[in-house]
Design goal:
Elements: E1 9-16, E2 20-22, H1 33-43, E3 47-51, H2 52-58, E4 66-70, E5 82-84, H3 87-93, E6 102-104, H4 108-114, E7 118-126, E8 134-135, H5 140-146, E9 147-155, E10 165-172
Parallel strand pairs: 1-6, 1-7, 3-4, 3-6, 4-5
Antiparallel strand pairs: 2-8, 7-10, 9-10
């Protein structure tokens, strides 16, 4: 990054109404083709940042993206990915980049850690309540006081999704800057 430039992180998440995003290291619902296509379209050509558990649940680097895995495990190896161990190390890796799209794709700990720098959240809201052990870290109060719903588009269950969905874009009321 050059002096005067700023870089924001965009979060991309699929969640149920109760903010569940994961269960036993995977998703708490059946595969949703509409969400996969939405995710791919958003993140292709950008940088995706994920935690170790998310990386392991995916099982390989995502194609057509630069993959960064953040973990406190100093010995962790992720072939085809850059591994970082702190936010400072991640930011240092972005110093020379301009006009780059950075996407935080989870899990819960990484969303929490990077939330101060996240300016936009793309939510695929899976209509329903699902049991799970991993949640998106924003409280109801934070959603209502710090974020504003910019757009919402409904998607009715059918061939591309066994569930009704809402594709939402939330913007932080006060925009952060990574650098």
């Amino acid at each position: 990054m050059h002096k005067g430039d700023s870089m924001n992180i965009t979060a991309v998440v699929a969640m149920a109404h109760n903010q569940v995003i994961g269960k036993n290291g995977g998703l708490p619902w059946d595969k949703i083709q509409a969400d996969r296509l939405h995710f791919s379209t958003l993140t292709k050509g950008g940088i995706v940042i994920m935690g170790r558990k998310t990386h392991e649940s995916i099982g390989k680097p995502l194609k057509d993206r630069d993959n960064i895995v953040m973990t406190t495990n100093q010995d962790y190896e992720a072939p085809g990915c850059m591994v970082v161990h702190s936010v400072n190390e991640m930011i240092a890796g972005f110093q020379s980049l301009r006009d780059v799209h950075i996407f935080c794709i989870g899990g819960e700990q990484i969303y929490s850690l990077l939330m101060p720098w996240i300016g936009v959240i793309y939510v695929t809201r899976v209509i329903g309540t699902f049991a799970g052990d991993t949640h998106f870290p924003l409280t109801d109060r934070a959603w209502s006081t710090e974020w504003q719903l910019a757009t919402a588009k409904n998607h009715i269950a059918g061939k591309e999704s066994p569930y009704d969905l809402t594709f939402e874009i939330w913007k932080k009321k006060l925009q952060p800057s990574l650098l």
